[in-house]
Amino acid sequence: DALQRLRSTGHNQAVLISGESGAGKTESSKLVLSFVTDAMRSRQDTASAARLRGKGWVEEQVRQTSPVLEAFGNAMTVRNNNSSRFGKWLDLRFSSSNELLGSSLTTYLLETTRVCGQSAGERCFHVFFQLLQARSSTMLSKLQLDEPESYNYLQGA
């Protein structure tokens, strides 16, 4: 409905995804983003599509923000292995010919208490574990990271 109104009126539209922990908000937002970018691109006429060929990198850049945001803002909780610990507002900008011009992302309410400690059965943000898992890579080896067990912060995780 929002996509149809955007096309017909050109007025700003919003999609709100809400629900309790573990309801699938993160996965739903990825699906909505994929659908919107694909649907808007498929509406371009063939002349416009020929002109825009090779410009799908904007859509791909927007889609690739999810893994980065999840690493720094998601954590394992007792209810969900990939729980978002923050809110986000994604603003997509389209041209009059349905071309995705760009986007901006605002994050808010990051659960900063998780940085200091976690409840029993929960973990800190994924990025800490991802860094330690990749510690042998050439780029990260310069950080001289130890085994996860050597960090008190990660005990019990």
Span between termini: 43 Å
String of helices and strands = HHHHHEEEEHHH
> Average pLDDT, to the nearest integer?
79
Structural class: alpha+beta
Poorly predicted ranges (pLDDT <50, ≥5 residues)? none
Strand content: 5-15%
Count of distinct strands: 4
Largest sheet: 2 strands, antiparallel
The helix count comes to 8
Radius of gyration: 20 Å
Helix content: 40-55%
Widest β-sheet, arrangement of strands: 1-2
Shape descriptor: elongated
What is this structure's SSE topology?
Layout: H1 2-9, H2 25-42, H3 46-52, H4 57-63, H5 65-73, E1 74-75, E2 83-84, E3 87-94, E4 100-108, H6 113-116, H7 126-133, H8 138-141
Features:
two-stranded antiparallel ribbon, 4 strands, 13% strand, 8 helices, 157 residues, elongated, alpha+beta
In words, what does this structure look like?
There is one protein chain. The protein has 157 residues and is an alpha+beta fold. 41% of the residues lie in helices and 13% in strands. It contains eight helices and four strands, in the order αααααββββααα. Strands 1-2 form a two-stranded antiparallel sheet. β3 and β4 (100-108) form a beta hairpin. α5 (65-73) crosses α7. The longest helix is centred in the first third of the chain and has 18 residues, at 25-42. The mean pLDDT is 79.
